[in-house]
Design a protein that fits this description.
Blueprint (H helix, E strand, L loop, with lengths): L3 E2 L9 H12 L16 H18 L5 E6 L2 H12 L6 E5 L2 H13 L3 E4 L2 H8 L5 H4 L3 E5 L1 E2 L4 E2 L9 E5 L14 E7 L10 E6 L14 H6 L9 H17 L1 H22 L4 E2 L11 E6 L2 H13 L2 E2 L10 E4 L6 H17 L1
Parallel strand pairs: 1-13, 3-4, 3-5, 5-8, 8-9
Antiparallel strand pairs: 2-10, 6-7, 9-10, 11-12, 12-14
Helix pairs in contact: 1-8, 2-8, 3-4, 8-9, 9-11
Bound molecules: pyridoxal-5'-phosphate (PLP).
The site of pyridoxal-5'-phosphate has 11 residues, from helix 3.
Amino acid sequence: MIKYNFSPGPAKLNNSVLEIVNKNIIEYQEEGISILEISHRSDSFEKILETTKKNLIELLKIPSNYQILFLQGGATFQNTFLGNNINQKKSTSNLITGTWGQKTYEDFIQIRDSKKILLENNQILEFLNQPLPDDIQNTDYMHITSNETIEGIQINNFNKIENDLIIDSSSDIGSYIFDWDNVAYLYAGAQKNLGIPGVTISVVRDDFIEKNDNPTYLNLYKLINKDSLLNTPPTFAIYVLNLVTDWMLTMGGINYFERQSIEYSSDVYALLERYDDYVTLPVENSLRSRMNIVFNFNNEKNEQAFIKESLDHGIIGIKGHRSVGGVRISLYNSIDRPSLDYLLGFMNSFFQKL
Ligand SMILES: Cc1ncc(COP(=O)(O)O)c(C=O)c1O
């Protein structure tokens, strides 16, 4: 049975990417060995590394005063990594708009002091539309999560925040254009919009990189200086990232995927609003994520039936996170229009039966 994968990540990959992977798992570009066997010190891998960085620079319009680093340990490792690499003399704040930002804050404060800014749905807009409160204005860096994957809350106009930012963009990287001016450090696990688990991309502004005495894998300065090759990097995950970024550029780059995500998410939200007798959308209009659409049924029985019937129809990955319940539809870049139309068709007929 064909499956329609709307999972929150690891997520769907485009078929053309899977076909290339498939071929190169058996033999990488007629080199006589698999991509899985390739040495990270080989010329072939160095080329993969270089072109992956080039693709990211082109896609995300990364300015020349930023470095790209590939690490393991997921976005979760970044909490410890960042906590240890921000000079203790520098001050930080954590803007918490959902689960992942909260987890970052909890890890940060085991390592350093950080100011907590915990905001509910309606307070987020107010926060974004006003000058920063006095006690926050002077912090050196503010950590934000641009897209809270579990709650479906997205802040993609973070350029308005008058502070240098550290951004967890794990679940919306590569889906809109932004200005790098107030971004000191941006990171994202690849497994949603850009590939598979195993590699986390960090984009680091030069002035953020400071020498310190941290042990090897906690040492941003050393890792940057060794160009992600201080130890064995996740070669296969970087290779898939290379293919996905190639595919994204061929499709038309970020502009294409920004348009796509606006179009897809608008279609799903519009359908849900038509059936607002049956469902509730918990997120304020202008904070609604284009990547993870979260909603709740007003009646538990309908929710269970919806999840069960979606599975019967081959639609997978849409049960809300166990911590918040409800339904979550993830619309990452690799979702194609026929899959979305299939989902919309299913949802429409489900609601019409109610
Ligand atoms: C926004 C965000 N941050 C962090 C994480 C944690 O990522 P990882 O499992 O790669 O550590 C996730 C996982 O879904 C996420 O969505």
